[in-house]
Amino acid sequence: MKFGFIGLGLIGGSIALTIRQKMPDSKIVAYNRSAAPLEQALENGTIDHGTHSIDESFAGCDFIFLCAPVNTNISFLPELKKYLTDHTILTDVGSVKGIIHDAVERAVPFAHFIGGHPMAGSEKSGFANSSDHLIENAYYILTPSNAATEADIEKYTALVRDLGAIPLRISPADHDLITAAVSHVPHLIAYSLVQLIKETDTPEQYMKLIAAGGFKDITRIASSDPTMWEQICLENAENIRYVLSEYTMRLSDMGEMVENAEGQKLNKLFGDIKNYRDSIQDGVKGSIGKVYDLHCDLIDETGAIATIATILSTKGISIKNIGIIHNRTYEQGALRIEFYDNDSRQHASDTLIKHGYTIYQN
Ligand code: NAD
Residue 362's pLDDT band (boundaries 50, 70, 90)? Predict the structure, then answer.
C-alpha cells in the first residue's frame, strides 16, 4: 500500500513509524515544512521519499494523512485536490473534527474523507519524539464523511487494527463534545491550576517548592504546546464553553458545601465520584498520554537510588524519569520511577520485589 503524510511531527511520525514496523513493504511519502524531520525519517528508513511541496509524489496513495495543525491541514486541501481519487482515503489526525469536515465538504466534497483522531499523545511534539508504539492500544476515533463508502470505512478500520490501535466510529459532533470533556477542558483546568499557584504563591515561593509531587503529576498536561492548545480552544469553542460551564457549576457547588461545613454531603459526593473514577477502564490509552510509573520505598542510606538504578539497568530496563517524593503516604520518602511503557514498569516491579523492595502502583 502507498501512504502519504502531510506533516511529519509527533503524530504523523508515530503513525508512519508504526506503518513501517507493521507493514515493512509499504511505500511512504511525506511532505513537511521544515527539512529536519524528513531527513531524519529518510535516514532511519521510516519514509521512502520526502518532499518540500505537495506534488506528484502524492499520486496513487491508498491513504493520505493530514498531520499538521488543523488550520494548516485545511489550507492544503485545494493543492491536494488533483491527487484525490476514488481509490484514495483522505484522513487527518486533528484533535477537533467539525471544522475539518466542514472544510472538506467545501473544498473537496468528492473526497473519500474519514476523519481520524488517535487518542494518544504527549506534551512533547515533533518527529524526534515520535514512536512506533504511541498509538498502540489507544482508541482511534474514525468520523466518516458522507462521501466515504462502507468499503472505505472497513479498509481504514482494518488498518487501525493492524497498527495495534482500537477503532471507534462516532460522528464528528459527538467527537467534539466528548473530547471537550475528557481532554480540552482538563487541559484548561491544568493550565489554570498552575496559574493559580504562580499568582498566589507566598513571597518565599513555597507553593512552587511543595508542588514537586502530586501537584506536578496532575498538571503535567499544562506543559503541552501553547500554540496547539490555542488553536484547539478556538476550533472547539462552543463545546469547550458548554463543558466549562458545567464544570464551574460543580466546582462552585463544592465550594458552597465547604463554606457551609456540609461534611456529610461532601463525603457522600467524594465517595460516589471515587466509585465512578475507580470504574473507569484501565489498560487502554486515553486522550491524555499515560504515565507508566511506580513508587518504591526508599531506604535512607547512601547510594540507595544508585542501587535501584543499577538493578534495573542490569535487567535492561530503561528509566524515563526518577525522583524522590515526600508526602504523608510515604512517611520515609519514596522513589517515583517512570518508564516508557507498561511492560517495562511490570518488569521493574517484579525485579524490585524480588530484591526485597516494597512497590506501590496505582
Ligand atoms: P507536531 O508539532 O509534532 O507536528 C506537526 C508537524 O507539522 C511538524 O512536523 C511541522 O513541521 C509540520 N507543519 C506545521 N506547519 C506546517 C506547514 N505549514 N506545512 C508543512 N508542515 C507543517 O504536532 P502533533 O502533536 O503531531 O500534532 C499534529 C496534529 O495532531 C494536530 O492537528 C493535533 O491536533 C493532532 N493531535 C495531537 C495530539 C498530541 O497529543 N500532540 C494527539 C492527537 C492528535
Answer: low
